[in-house]
Each structure stands twice: as C-alpha cells, then as structure tokens.
Design goal:
Layout (H helix, E strand, L loop, with lengths): L1 H8 L10 E6 L23 E4 L2 E3 L15 E4 L9 E7 L4 E12 L8 E6 L6 E3 L12 E4 L11 E7 L7 E12 L4 E2 L5 E4 L2 E2 L3 E6 L5 E7 L4 E7 L2 E3 L6 E9 L2 E9 L1
C-alpha cells in the first residue's frame, strides 16, 4: 500500500525533452588518513549534507567508464560490526524536474553477486524506495563500472540518497561520479481536470480515451508502478493498452505547454 500511495503522488513526466544535470559529485581528490564522509572538505557541492560511517579514499580510483574522474572516491566498507557502513546524501532539490535518473561509478569487492550495495531514495527520510541494478558476475568482474539504478526518484525539495553495505563478510564497495539528471518542468503548467479528462480509469476492454478542451495533439507517456516507461505516443484521443498486463499504471499527458497525470488500472 505504501508503494502504491507513493507511486500515485509522484509526478512522473513525459519523455521528449533533454536531460539536465540536477546534482553531480566526483568527491574531489581525496585526503590523507581516509576521513569520514561527514568531515571530508573536498566536495564539489558545499550546500549538500553528507553523513554516515563510510570514508573517502584515494586508493583504487575510478576508471574504465566514460568520464571516470579518478582521485577521491567513497569506500563503503565491510559489515563487520554494527551499524552497517553507509553514505547518506541530503538536500538535493528535484522539485522542478521530471523523468529523474541516477548514474553512479560503482566498484564491488567481489566477483560474485550483484545489487548487494543497497541504493535507496527518500523524500522524507522515513519512507525509502530501493533502486535496483545488475552488473556482470564471475571472474574479473570486481572492477569499476557505470551503473544506472532503476526505480522511482521523487520530486522534492530535499531528496535523500542512501548507499548501504549489507554484506556480512569482508566485502567493500566504492562509488564515484554520482550524476542525477532530469527534464526541467519550468514553464510547464498543469492541466486541470476541467481542461482534460481520461476515461475510463478502470480499463476492462483495453481502451481509454483522452478528451481536452482544445483537442490538440497530445504527447502521452505510460509508466508502470515501478516508474518504468512502457511507451510514448502522440494522439488526439484514444489509447490502446490491450496488450499490457493487468495492474496499476500512471499516464502522463502533455498538450500545448501543459501537463496532466492520472493513475489508471488495467483489469
């Protein structure tokens, strides 16, 4: 239920504009003695809060992917004692963005498994959404790689991103070159329910209709409950979703510089 409520409250926007950098951090050149993330003073973003028991290191610098910055990186060490090792980043403003994506330079200290470094986002610090990723396993895969975790990233004035090492063995992770991007919504106003309507919102025959006062061509994007884009389409009125699985989806519509979002259920 919490997942559904969050899904319907987050505005996931359309797909036809360029990505803009919201936040990026390459952790500078590092410092001697491996300072904890909360006392390190080499960040690019001085208006962002960094906390946790991870530390900044210059060993094993990032490499092997496009724009790898090298030098300083965050080491999120093995879980040998409580609490778990983590990095928490707070204070990122995503209010005026949509279609938000995250890319991270990622190093795993093991050849086995993937997705063990837990990556979560939150708009309030209480309810967390885990983002998921996969990467190769087996001999030679304990390397740097650029990953792009998938999941819903909220629009909020204080986005929090948390990285946690949950492995109970001598395995550490490193991260570098965090890049949060999105499409600006500045200048895009909201369509009201009087100006545009979607019906039915509970779909049993595979079709729903879009009616607006202006009846202009509309850019339609459909997302599943995990925030994954299913398709985009330009239309005046009718959308066919008959081939999709049953479940909850979010429709995002742009028309004449305005936008509208609506939850639908396919039965």
């Amino acid at each position: 239920m919490k997942k559904l409520l969050l899904f319907t409250s987050v505005i996931i926007a359309g797909t036809l504009t360029a990505q803009t950098t919201i936040y990026s951090e390459n952790f500078g050149v590092g410092q001697a003695n491996n300072p904890l993330v909360n006392v390190y003073n080499g960040y690019q973003n001085t208006n962002i809060t960094y906390s946790g028991n991870a530390d900044i290191r210059t060993t094993t610098p990032s490499e092997g992917y496009t724009n790898a910055s090298g030098s300083g990186c965050v080491f999120i060490g093995a879980v040998t004692t409580n609490p778990e090792k983590y990095l928490l980043i707070e204070g990122i403003n995503t209010t005026n963005f949509k279609n938000i994506t995250l890319a991270i330079g990622h190093y795993k200290g093991t050849n086995t498994g993937n997705n063990e470094l837990k990556i979560e986002v939150s708009e309030n610090g209480t309810n967390w959404i885990q983002l998921n990723y996969t990467r190769p396993i087996g001999t030679g895969t304990s390397t740097w790689l650029l990953i792009k975790p998938e999941g819903i990233i909220p629009t909020t004035n204080n986005l929090k991103i948390k990285f946690t090492n949950t492995i109970n063995s001598n395995v550490g992770f490193r991260i570098d070159d965090i890049l949060l991007s999105g499409e600006s919504t500045l200048g895009l106003t909201d369509l009201t329910k009087n100006e545009l309507k979607i019906y039915p919102t509970i779909i049993t025959d595979g079709i729903f209709n879009i009616v607006s006062d202006t009846n202009q061509t509309k850019k339609v994007a459909l997302y599943d409950i995990n925030g994954k884009l299913i398709f985009t389409k330009e239309t005046h009125k009718i959308i066919n979703v008959g081939k999709l699985h049953k479940g909850v989806y979010l429709v995002r519509i742009e028309e004449n510089g305005k936008s509208f979002s609506q939850k639908i259920i396919i039965k």
